[in-house]
Write a structure and sequence with these properties.
six-stranded parallel sheet; alpha/beta; 13 strands; Rossmann fold; 14 helices; globular
Length: 370
Amino acid sequence: MVVPPYFDIPPKAYGGVEAVVADLVDALTDRGHRVTLFGAGENGTRGRLVSLWDRIQSDGLGNPFPEVLHALKVRRAIEELAVLDGLDLVHDHTFAGPLNMPAYGALGLPTVVTVHGPVTGDPYPYYRALGSDAHLVAISDRQRELAPDLNWVGRVHNALRVPDWPFQPEKQDYALFLGRFTEEKAPHLALEAAHAADIPLILAGKCAEPPELRYFDSAVRPLLTEHDHMFGMADAAAKRTLLTGARCLLFPVRWEEPFGMVMIEAMVCGTPVVALRGGAVAEVIVDGVTGRVCDDPSELPTAIKEVQTYDPQAMRDHVLAHFGADTLSRGYEEIYHRVLRARAPHRGNRVTAIHARSANAAHQSMPPAR
C-alpha cells in the first residue's frame, strides 16, 4: 500500500488520502490480510509501515520533488521486499507512483491505482498514457463519467470507521467551513451565505501555500466580520469537536469535487451538509435528508435554515450504510481478486503490498462489486 510522504498515517490534521488509507489498512487487516505500507512518519494502523523518510515531507506539499523521489524510494523498497515477503500486488495512492509499473510488472506485480484527484485537464493525458497496466479505481461515479475511456476497474467510495466518530444531535449556534482555502473550495461563498442566513461562521482548514494565502487575502479577508472566526488548521480532535457542534457544514465547491471526505465526516457526527452541486456532491448527500444540494449560491442561505430541522440520526445511519470502512475494504478486496485472477496466467513471482493469505475463503463471502 503506497501513500504519499507528506503526513502520518492516519494524519494528525490535514490529509484526506492518508485518513482513507489508514481505515482501509485496518479494515483489510480485520478481514485477514497482511498489509505493508510504504510512506513516511508515524504509523497508527495495524499494518506494517516501511518508513522511507526521516520525517514527513509536509513542507514540500505542492512541490513535485518529494513525490518523485518518494516514488523512487518506494520502487527500490518493493524490489527488495517483493520476493522475500511474497507480495501479491501494489495498491498506489500517489500521483507519481504508477510510473513504477514497468518495474513492478517485471516482478509479476499488478498495480491498482486509486485516483484521488481530478481526472480532467492536465491529469487526463497522464492517466490515459498509463494504459491498461494501471488498474484505475474511481472514488466516485462522476469521476468515471468525466473520463470514461480510462482503464477503470471499479469504483469504491471513500469511507470511514463510524465508531471512531462522535455523534451529537444538539448543536451550537454556528455554521462551519472546513477545507482548503482555494477558489475551488470557495470559503468566500460560505461567508456570504452565513452572513445572509444570520449565523456565525467558523472557518477551519489549510491555508499555508502561496496560492492559498493569496486567495485568502483577496477573497476571504475582506468579507470577515466580528461574527466570523478563523480557527486555523484543525487537528483530528478539534475537527471532530467542530463538526459535532455545527448546525451545518458549508461545502460550496466550484469544481468537479472527486469525493469530498468532509461531507461524510460531518454527516456521521449528525451534522447536515449544505453544498453546491459539483462532482460527487449529489452521490454523497441525500438531498432533503442529510443535507441540501444547491444549484446556485443564492440558494445557500435558505438551505442553511432548512437543514437545521433534519434528523441527525438519519445522517449517521446513511454514512453507516454506504460509507463505512467495511464497505471500503470489501470493495477493494473484490478489485484485488479480479485483478489477480486476470493476471494469474502471466505471473512469475507472487508480489504486492497486500498479503492475501485467506484470499479464496474471503472471496467466497464477498458481496457483488459495486
